[in-house]
Prior knowledge:
Blueprint: E1 8-13, E2 27-32, E3 39-48, E4 56-65, E5 69-70, E6 78-79, E7 84-87, E8 90-91, E9 98-101, E10 111-113, E11 118-121, E12 127-136, E13 142-152, E14 154-156, E15 165-166, E16 171-174, E17 177-179, E18 185-188, E19 195-197, E20 202-205, E21 211-220, E22 226-235, E23 254-255, E24 259-263, E25 274-277, E26 287-291, H1 292-295, E27 304-309, E28 314-323, E29 329-339, E30 342-343, E31 351-352, E32 357-360, E33 363-364, E34 371-375, E35 388-390, E36 395-398, E37 404-413, E38 419-429, E39 444-445, E40 454-455, E41 464-471, E42 477-481, E43 488-492, E44 498-508, E45 511-525, E46 527-531, E47 542-543, E48 547-548, E49 553-556, E50 558-561, E51 567-570, E52 580-582, E53 587-590, E54 596-600, E55 602-605, E56 611-613, E57 617-622, E58 631-632, E59 656-658
Parallel strand pairs: 6-13, 15-22, 23-29, 31-38, 39-45, 47-57, 48-57
Antiparallel strand pairs: 1-2, 3-4, 5-8, 7-11, 9-12, 10-11, 12-13, 14-17, 16-20, 18-21, 19-20, 21-22, 24-27, 25-28, 26-27, 28-29, 30-33, 32-36, 34-37, 35-36, 37-38, 40-43, 41-44, 42-43, 44-45, 46-50, 49-53, 51-55, 52-53, 54-57, 55-56, 58-59
Amino acid sequence: MKSKPSWKLKRQRTSDALVGGPAGTGQVFVLTGVPTVPGVYTVTVQAQDSAAIPNTGVRTITITVLPSTVLTGTLPDASIGHAYSRPLVAFDPNGPVTWSVAPTSGMPPGLALDPAGAVTGTPTQVGTFSFTVNITSPTGLVTTRTYTLNVSGIFIQDPTILPTAIAGAAYNYALTTTGGAGTVLWSVVSMPPGLNLSATGVVSGTPTTPGVFTFIATANDGVRPIVRQFTIPIRLPIPPLLDISLASTRLSDIVLGSNVTVVLNAANGMPPYTWRLASGSTLPPGLRLVDANAASSGFLPATTIIAGIATAPGAYVFDVIATDAVGAEVRRTYTVNVTRVALLSTVIPNIVTGTAFSMRFAAVGGTAPYTYTMAPLNTGTDMLPAGFNLTSGGQLSGTTNSTGSYAFALTARESGGNTITRTVNLTVTNASGLRVLTTNPPDLWVGGGLRGETELDVNGASTYTWALTAGALPPGLHLDTINGPNNTELDGAPTTAGTYTFTLRATDNANASNFAEHVFTVRIAPMQIVSPPVALLADLGSELPSGRAGVPYSFTLKAAGGTAPYTFAQSPFVPLPAGLTLSSSGVISGMMTVTGRFVIVPVVTDAAGRVLNSPGMGLVIAPAGVPLPLVIGNFDGELPGASAGAPFAFPLDRMIRTGTGPFTWTLAAALHPPTMPYRHE
Length: 681
């Protein structure tokens, strides 16, 4: 046995803790810390009350800190008479582990386990088999896992990744099997939008949404079914450029010694994707790229993850390259902070309006005291409801009548300067669970109109009437109820700049005592960006002129209204892609080496100090020498309203994201309104 590592026994008041102590005691003791050394430890604790003749209790606790983290959770089904191969994956900070079958266990007939963790062989018997394995660390400590394997008489001949489908085009693929005791029938719980699976195993339909989708199908012969997870990549007819969102490249902080599983995500191009580290890049010590589906059936096929146990604190930067099915590549730089500091919990219980709430966040792993700060996640989500506050000591408390969802980034800093940041979410409801779902609208500008309107909604199943209960709506905005109950919007065209705070209430029409309020904040600027021009439809957004990797890029933003001159800066919530800068005079310039579609979100300040967080603007950077794909914006809204007997026109070219003009449009189906013919110009 080893003595206990650097953990501590910490007392908390129950009003400050997320867990409760014995009734009436007012306090709870928590053994806290971050174990960093594997082993078996004994901890002896003594509790003593405050009676005149103290009562004392002693308890010895045994704590086992496992050396290895096992990633493989379940095994996919096997088929009798057909080769089977599946790697078992585990991580250990001390080096490679050794796998073996536990002495009291045995492998399914026909299969074997090698020291590297590969389950291989050809099953010889139908049935469900369980076996226990030992994972031995280089230090000699052993972790045990038990697996269950289903062996069926049915063999599915198809790959797990099915042929790529095209959104909007008919798709047909027949799954095939051999073996089994009789007629094999297929079933599935759910399918990608627009597709279905017949009992005979035919995947058919017209997929509607691009992306990478998975479904779990069962083939059953009435004796021993087999379950298989399939993936269907669905792409647009002309896919946009392969892309990795910049927002995904800032990884969440990792606690030293903790288990890490980070899924890498790409979009567009021709899925599926493969991933690799760029030459010269290294992951934080203890982490590596892993074929997630080969390690665990809980991931999509062709998914890659960053996994392992972080073993060294520090700020790390590394580049990763994604390649799609036709060889197109995209490269991104990732950053991550590996820290000694850990937050015990950031899960907040449901908060009820009119009821006092108090809890304290607790950090460990560093040197006290800890200082707590919070920062917004974006411009639309309030950090805290009205009446709440967070102290530098980590105490979150308050009483509010504003329901809804709130979120902020919580940072705990220990006296040595090490930090950890986590996202904290709060949900506030009334006593019956009702809450407002709508958050603040984006920044507006005078005369610009409420882009896309703001639909007011709650989480209840009844019908509701909305009303203003405090403050005043911005001049020019109003509540508009259209098309019957539960269709209330905040819309209009603001006429006066300023920041407006007001409270809206949704009242249950079946029970007037059941209502939910929310405090909204709307910012209206006197100026707007006029170059590039504002999109005609809010669903589409604005587009900057496209550029090429390795070619200098320059575009000047222009604003109007308010008081000139204007100062421009990029939003702190949306970083600029590497190689580009935005000058204070509004010039976007630089030479990019990475490709993809990026979002530029300028913040404009006029000479009077008034601020506009402008809508995001798309910027496509294409590889050198590759034609720009023709991409139309993902528009699923409505065209501007038309009036009977009045002329109507809408420039369709404004919906095009990228491509090489001039463009030719044709009508796919005669769905235009009566007496409104389509005309190409």
